[in-house]
Amino acid sequence: xxxxxxxxxxxxxxxxxxxxxxxxxxxxxxxxxxxxxxxxxxxxxxxxxxxxxxxxxxxxxxxxxxxxxxxxxxxxxxxxxxxxxxxxxxxxxxxxxxxxxxxxxxxxxxxxxxxxxxxxxxxxxxxxxxxxxxxxxxxxxxxxxxxxxxxxxxxxxxxxxxxxxxxxxxxxxxxxxxxxxxxxxxxxxxxxxxxxxxxxxx
Length: 202
Known about the structure:
- This protein has eight helices and nine strands.
- By secondary structure, it is α/β, with parallel strands linked by helices.
């Protein structure tokens, strides 16, 4: 991860890699390696600046995942048109979370603090189904996914962006689908091994 910030004293509070400069400057973005990055997070204070950096980032790296902050509701669709892969409005998220505390306080506690607690064993994960694998063209039950790894399949995201919520054992899955799974760290590691991916810590 590389952080871009215009503050000269950034090194006093950040130990990672960083570039000092204006993120709205293409040369600064190139120095940060945006042209070869897998993803870009754009989180400036003004929507106009976020729009400019998103446009620049998409121009420099057409394949990058770009997550952009929207400070107003009206900016969201425009940022998507500018090339953002996802748009996050922190004000909307904060409002929804406050409402959740009023309606379902214990659920909100679990999803907010509980899921972020490193001591909690349960984690959410995702992976994309690859062509010509045991999962491609099978049902959830036929694939052996749950039996082999112990994870729970909460949803399946289709290539068109739609979701199948709480899929049953007869739900068909295929290449390009993205199962959303819940499990312990050990189960996630088992899943990675079963998929033939590096068994890194979850």
